[in-house]
Amino acid sequence: MSLPKTLAEDVARNLVMVARLLDEDPEQAYAYARIALRLASRVAAVREAAGFAAYATQRYAEALAEFRASRRMTGSVELWPVMADCERGLGRPERAMAMAGEPEVQKLDKAGQVEMRLVAAGARRDMGQIDAAIVTLQSSELASSAVHPWTPRLRYAYADALLAAGREDEAREWFGKALEADKDGSTDASDRLAELDGVEFVDALGDDDDETAEVTAPVVTEADNDLEDPDDQDDDEDDEDGPVKA
Questions:
Q1: Is the pLDDT of residue 53 over 80?
Q2: Residue 198 backbone class (left: φ over 0; alpha: ψ -120 to 50; beta: rest)
Q3: For a pLDDT cut of 90, what percent of the chain falls above it?
Q4: Which of 147, 163, 197, 234 is deepest in the core (most CB within 10 A)?
């Protein structure tokens, strides 16, 4: 809304492509995000999209800088869990754990708090604290029979932690519970159960059968006009005094 109409349309088109490609072709999504960032770096939604594109391509330092920029612009704590997971990606699980204990976590909605719990459990596992990771995941949300969008991932993470601790029977039970809740196939719980039961899968298709659709490189009519320069991201990346699929 703060941009001239033509520029706003160009930015919107790039953001749409980021959303479409983020799962299937993260590198191409990242390319579109960089164009949107060059066009409108002072728009919080653009910084957030750029952060998720960088996160999806494992550019964790860049993602963290973009998420911090978006948070400064909006004052929202919504990105707190993924910021903590970026710290994990940078090999700093202790920082992720510190963030899990910050007051911002109490301001998250239920989905955000569950996501933070998943990140914290992952950080525990990064530090070799598998039993602590299991305890971290034990919660009223895990025990509940109600199914929410985050339920399959929470149950799956718990099952995976149990398996890492050598508790195979319990892990099988919780992979089964994850599968029951996973109507959209967001986890590979069925494959994990099959592996535990000794089932092997054979790929009947050869490499020649794989076809990947090519995506046209980003082209934006106003991208070359340099209407707006991105903020100095060095400031974002240097801001380390701040306080993320376990």
A1: yes
A2: left
A3: 76
A4: 163
* Measured CA angle at 236 (ends 235, 238), to 5 deg: 65
Q: How far is CA 90 from the centre of its chain?
A: 14
- For every residue of 80-113, DSSP letters joined together read HHHHHHHHHHTT-HHHHHHHHTSGGGGGS-HHHH
- How far is Cα 236 from Cα 184, in angstroms, rounded to an integer? 36
Q: pLDDT-derived band of residue 208, with 50, 70 and 90 as boundaries?
A: low
Three-state secondary structure of 116-173:
HHHHHHHHHHHCCCHHHHHHHHCCHHHHCCCCCCCHHHHHHHHHHHHHHCCCHHHHHH
pLDDT tens-digit map of 72-121: 999 999 999 999 999 999 999 999 999 999 999 999 999 999 999 999 99
How big is the CA angle at 18 (ends 12 and 23), to the nearest 5 degrees?
Answer: 155
CA distances to 61, 165, 209, 213, 241 from 55, rounded to whole Å, are 9, 29, 30, 23, 20
Using alpha carbons only, give the angle 231, 105, 65 rounded to the nearest 5 degrees: 20
Higher pLDDT, 216 or 45: 45
CA 185-148-109 angle, to 5 degrees, is 125
